[in-house]
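Handout, section B. The chain below has 268 residues.
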Amino acid sequence: MSQRNQISIGAHVDQSDPIAEAQARDTTLVQFFLGNPQSYKGPVIEYAGGAEGLKADAEAAGVDLYVHAPYLINVATTNNRLRIPSRKLLQSHMDAAASIGAKGLIVHGGHLKDDEDPSIGFDNWRKAIAATDLKIPLLIENTAGGDNAMTRYLDRIKGVWDAISGEEQADMVGFCLDTCHAHAGGNALETVVDDVRAITGRIDLVHANDSRDAFDSGADRHTNFGQGHIEPDLLAAVVRDAKAPVICETPGGASEHTADFGWLRERL
């Protein structure tokens, strides 16, 4: 297998026809939302053939599907009125993602209020893993902002992992490393792959994104490769070292994404 083909690179796309979106980008993996990422309403599958059709057609086309859970999910919070709906929403998206044969469901780590003890959030993550039927891998993603976020800083990621490690389904919990979030969140990209692996033992997916903002800015704003603040060879090194499938969540459509894939492949 050539170096060029070792790492699969795809993109975040519209969910109405993910297979066509993959083919337009000449790729074998795509990520999408099932429904509105800013809504507590349950998942919606827009594909004309429904869940079964999407699963069968993606398998026939050789396209791997990843689902990104809604941004509103915060299973760490101490607020029952947010935590309980978050757990229900996580389960419903897990069920929907499994029904289309997705390879993983990506979810953000969530956060507490600034004055709250992070150990409560870690334990709430443990309870969420215990309460959720993980039918496919749940990939927890590092986030860019918030001083009391559960997965911005390495010590917090460790807190989450230590809390959930004793749970029966711990092996079904993986990690999604976002390069923009790591950079904007104040984690050195030079060492972040080794740092994360030392904590989680795994990196299942990379969200490869350049950052519109400076290191440790706390701002989650993605941009196309070479347009932001991340040094190009450093971004490529993270992708190379992680040895995981890659999803570009960069702006634009098929032509912009194809350009981003080419930019990244040149440096790999």
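Note. The chain has a mean pLDDT of 96. Compare this with the example in section A.
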